[in-house]
């Protein structure tokens, strides 16, 4: 009888422990919820995008891609634009969110609500360059194959409305 009672108590304790583990949100679950909220907030403020994953939203079939946060938390702020793209960041020293394009010619940053948001830039293509403009006739700065990064767009932070990529 005592053995049976001890088994029931042990079983009840194990079940209570399992229930507590399953009902308590883990750090990963909380992080995933925060990422989903960040995606939803960004899309509410900048509609028309398609969620690629819990960190990226694409616009116009992938022509423009926004990455919301640096993939590796705790890494130092470095230029990290993927090969084949040119990127611009909302903060100096490549602070996220990050927008990226690869098309040649004129692009109106307002198309993706990125006008007045560029504070640093990285060009990660093998040739050519991109110029950032306030208006079509007011060139602010360039990044390109010969000068890949601009960690601070000062004195033109948050001025860019257009970009023009010069392709060879």
Automatic annotation (TrEMBL):
Q: Where is the signal peptide?
A: 1-30
Keywords from the named record: Signal
Source organism's superkingdom?
A: Bacteria
Q: What is this protein called?
A: Peptidase inhibitor family I36
Organism, as annotated: Micromonospora fulviviridis
Query: What is the taxonomic lineage of the source species?
Result: Bacteria, Bacillati, Actinomycetota, Actinomycetes, Micromonosporales
